[in-house]
Amino acid sequence: MNRVLLISLGSRGDMEPFLALGEKLSQEGKTIAFCFPTQFEKLAKEVSPLFYGQDPRFLDLINRPEVVSILSQDSGTFNRMRKGLSIAKEIAPIQEQLILDQESAVAEFEPDHIYFHIKCIYPIFWALTTGGKITLISPMPCTIHPVEHEPHIGFGNPVNTIWNLMTYKLAHWALVRKSILGYGKAFIKQRGLRLNAQQISKFIKSQLEVEYPISSALFKRPEYWPKRAVITGFLERNKSKHYTADADLLRFLQKNPDPVFVTFGSMVNSQPKRIGEDILNVAVKLQIPMIVNSSWGGIVIPEHDGQWIYEVTDVPYDFLFPRVRAVIHHGGSGTTHSALRCEKPQAIIPHLGDQFFWNRCIAKESKGVKGFPIKEWSQFNFEQLLKLLIIQN
């Protein structure tokens, strides 16, 4: 099995686990190719020259203000539902094209093995119709295999074992019926495939191999999981080799050798200017130097003299994290694991989805302190969280 195709969809955070895996497999002598949204071609070619693009409309869609508003829960429930129904009409034709893009990449590259993201549908069809080998890569444990003490990632906080396990049944039904068969209906008909919900469901439940690239220091593999579900440990590619640090950043780090790093990644919110002002005020008040990632607009720092805050827009964590004192962030799996790998105390200010799960894990495993949801933001809360993070660590 020397030809490996890695297929992913989503934001950059959804690409990084596949890039890290691709780099590892390439070092083992495998021929690697990536199939990502076209916006990530340059990024993918840092690892392999073999790239197959997927329709750019998907990434454009999830980055649109109304979609971001739904995900960040900036508006009321009724407005989010209205916007969601409107967006749903646009998703189907894009998903249908993505399936064709993935099919084309597989036909051209002829892989022996496909690693894929759960948002990608074609690998399931390929495995069921050709017997080809596929592996699902999930950087979040509460997706395919039930966890008794945690609900499926789409269902919020834990309640009790009965409810937690029920959420996985509901999510599985939606995955098979609404996603795979819903978006794949036209493709199945056009190709004359004999596939139904029972076949797909059985394959996912009893045959699909799943790798979770997460650390057992944060989540321990349940003994009741099938052998096909494996926790492989966190992988992070060497991004520093493609990076040249700005001279001003190096001067700031030399003057302030142990700053706190603050980032919300690609998350946005309804009050980025207020948040930026609060962060600046706290940095000045406590005289704690900070490096702040303001690249996606979730944090907008007001004009300042540069004494206590240095703003970045794109810096590799494997370069920065060894040089910081602590990390305050949104709770993406990659950021969480990067801080963990560098043994930096961290606090999460979750915005949505799995970020609340990682927030619970960080506190439970004493890898930092539990943060507050972005909806509870205030200068006081941020100051108290920062003090607690530094005092306890």
Written account of the structure:
The chain is an alpha/beta fold and 393 residues long. The chain has two domains: 3-231, Rossmann fold, CATH 3.40.50; 243-392, Rossmann fold, CATH 3.40.50. 46% of the residues lie in helices and 13% in strands. The protein has 14 helices and 13 strands. The protein has a seven-stranded parallel sheet with strand order 3-2-1-4-5-6-7, with helices on both faces. A six-stranded parallel sheet has the order 10-9-8-11-12-13, with helices on both faces. Helix 4 crosses helix 5 (77-109) and helix 5 packs across helix 7 (161-191). The chain is globular. The model has no long low-confidence stretch (mean pLDDT 92).
Quick recap:
By secondary structure, this protein is an alpha/beta fold. 46% of the residues lie in helices and 13% in strands.
Rg, Å, rounded: 21 Å
Which CATH architecture of the largest domain? 3-Layer(aba) Sandwich
Helix/strand class: alpha/beta
Rounded to the nearest angstrom, the distance between the terminal CA atoms is 46 Å
Query: Which consecutive residue ranges, at least 5 long each, have pLDDT under 50?
Result: none
Determine the fraction of residues in helical runs and give it as a percent range: 40-55%
Number of separate domains: 2
CATH superfamily of the largest domain: Glycogen Phosphorylase B
Mean pLDDT: 92
User: Class of the largest domain in CATH?
Assistant: Alpha Beta
Can you count the beta strands? 13
Number of helices: 14
Strand count, sense and closure of the main sheet? 7 strands, parallel
Instruction: Estimate the strand proportion.
Output: 5-15%
CATH topology group of the largest domain: Rossmann fold
Quick one: overall form?
globular
Helix/strand order: EHEHEHHHEHEHHEEHEHEEHEHEHEH
> How are strands sequenced across the largest beta sheet?
3-2-1-4-5-6-7
